[in-house]
Amino acid sequence: MKPLLSKTTKPFLIYVLIILIISIPVYYWAVDTIWKSELDEHNITIAEKTAYEFNHLKLSDEELTKSITLWNKIQPGTNIEKIQTNALKRDLIFTVERQKNYLSEPETERYRCLKKVVYIHDQPYLFTVETNIEESQETIVVIAITTIFFFIMIVLGLLFLNRRLSNTIWKPFRNTLGKLKTFNLNHQSKIEFDKTDTTEFEELNQSLSKLIEHNVSVYKTQKEFTENASHELQTPLAIIKNKLDILLQTENLTEKQYQIAEEINKALTRSSRINKNLLLLAKIDNSQFDNSETIYFDILLRQNFEVLEEHFQQKNISVTSYILPEVKVNGNSSLTEILISNLLLNAIRHTQKGGSISIKLTNSSFEVANSGTEKLNTDLLFKRFSKSSKDNNGSGLGLAIIKEICNFQHWNIEYKFENNFHFFSVNF
User: Fold this and answer.
1) DSSP letter string, 382-394
2) What pLDDT shows up at residue 101?
3) 132 DSSP β-pair partners
4) DSSP-derived secondary structure letter, 291
5) Does 193 reside within a domain?
6) Which domain holds residue 131?
7) Neighbouring C-beta atoms of residue 121, cutoff 10 Å
8) CA distance 308 to 427
9) Whole-structure pTM over 0.70, yes or no?
10) Cα 406-412-416 angle, rounded to 5 deg
11) In this structure, are strands 318-323 and 356-361 parallel, antiparallel, or unpaired?
């Protein structure tokens, strides 16, 4: 994950770099074009000025011929020759490349050329002038280096501004984010956000304050409902169960009446268990538990193991265990005890008589494995009221409760079937 400013700065830098790269050939074309235009004007000026000077020397035809010959010898970049009338109808401007053969290391240079008809003593002469074009490549190299220098300055400046802006402009946002991270709905404390002169951040703080206030109100209502439901439902269920127990102890019951009362008792017991489990799920969903306790998982596991020892013996289940001592985890002790109990009871319930159960606890995971014949349906395994086996004695909420407890305590539960064994692994 990257900060917001970094995400906006990177595309900007890439855009600037692309524009600067494109600008280098544009610079080259612009500078070269300007130089050629200036040289063309310079060459035309030279031709016209030369013709003007010859006309004002008042030379004879013989002296003019000698002067032109001398001019051509001492001016290697120009040439003047007499032509027929209308031999050249318009000026010619072009570029040629020539090598400097007189140098120890010959090099090629470009020349801007002009062929123009001038009139000296009212006679047409072809004036040819060649002017060296200064190496624009060298200028472009300088421009490119300068461009790169300023690009580096832009990058460094943006990085500096990015850090400064992150520490100043985004400070109210970071303060708000920090308070949200420490907010705990169980404490029901109202968050007081710092005042800021940034409109967007102030609107964010006001919206969050209203949202938190509403959530705290809803949380209180749900908590009161679950507490009232727990008290109001369990009391009549307990009374009915007590009356049924008294009825079952009556000697005047017929066999049929006894069977009916026994079935009612089983259904009532199951209803009471489902009610408790649903209330437990509601409390977990409403975050009504503190998950910041330090728990000795191995101690809770041994305590549950001892309580369920009788169940292992009744079904003649062989148990193998590997429990690492002093395994500490963060969570809620009550929920963790329910998780351990549900996993062990689930393994016992779904293990045939004479089967086997394996229990393993390490610093990073808790695993319960029981013998079985076929893989369970993983799509329905942790859903509420779904049946992963043919056993109808359960409430259909055991594995759903285990899943919710793991989610609440930021653990992960996994299921797999290997070598005729069901494996349930809780990773801390």
Assistant:
1) TSTT--SSS--SS
2) 64
3) 111
4) -
5) no
6) 7-142
7) 12
8) 23
9) no
10) 115
11) parallel
Does residue 155 form part of some domain? no
pLDDT surpasses 70 at 261:
yes
pLDDT confidence of residue 3: 67
Q: Average pLDDT of the chain?
A: 83
pLDDT in tens, 345-377: 989 988 989 999 999 999 999 999 999 888 888
From the number of C-beta atoms within 10 Å of its C-beta (0-12, 13-18, 19+), residue 379 rates as: exposed
Residue written as token pair 């032109």: 68
Taking a C-beta distance cutoff of 8 angstroms, is the pair 195, 175 a contact? Answer: no
DSSP class of residue 197 equals S
Helices (H), 75-198: 136-168, 171-182
Do 218 and 134 sit in the same domain of this protein?
A: no
The C-alpha atoms of residue 290 and residue 408 are separated, in whole angstroms, by: 10
Element (H, E) at 321: strand 318-323
Provide the residue type at 217 as one letter: S
Among residues 235, 259, 285, which one ends one of the domains? Answer: 285
Do 137 and 13 fall into the same domain? yes
Other C-beta atoms closer than 10 Å to the C-beta of 351 total 20
In a domain, 153, yes or no: no
Instruction: Let me know whether 269 and 308 are in one domain.
Output: no
According to the model, what pLDDT value does residue 369 have?
95
Q: Which residue has the tokens 């830098």?
A: 13
| H/E stretch holding 98 | strand 92-99
Nearest CA to 293 out of 326, 325, 324, 335 is that of 335
12 and 70 part of one domain: yes
Burial class (CB in 10 A: 0-12, 13-18, 19+), 136: buried
The structure tokens 């005042």 sit at 195
DSSP 90: S
Q: What is the DSSP string of 339-400?
A: HHHHHHHHHHHTS-TT-EEEEEE-SSEEEEEEE-SS---TTTTTSTT--SSS--SS-S-HHH
- Fill in the DSSP letter of residue 133: P
Residue 138's contacts (CB-CB under 8 Å, 6 or more residues apart) are none
Q: What pLDDT, on the 0 to 100 scale, is given for residue 316? A: 92
Band (pLDDT 50/70/90 cuts) for residue 44 is very high
What DSSP line would sit under 230-250, residue for residue? HHHHHHHHHHHHHHHHHHHT-
Do residue 412 and residue 298 come from a single domain?
yes
Residue listed under structure tokens 């809803």: 218
Overall number of domains in the chain: 3
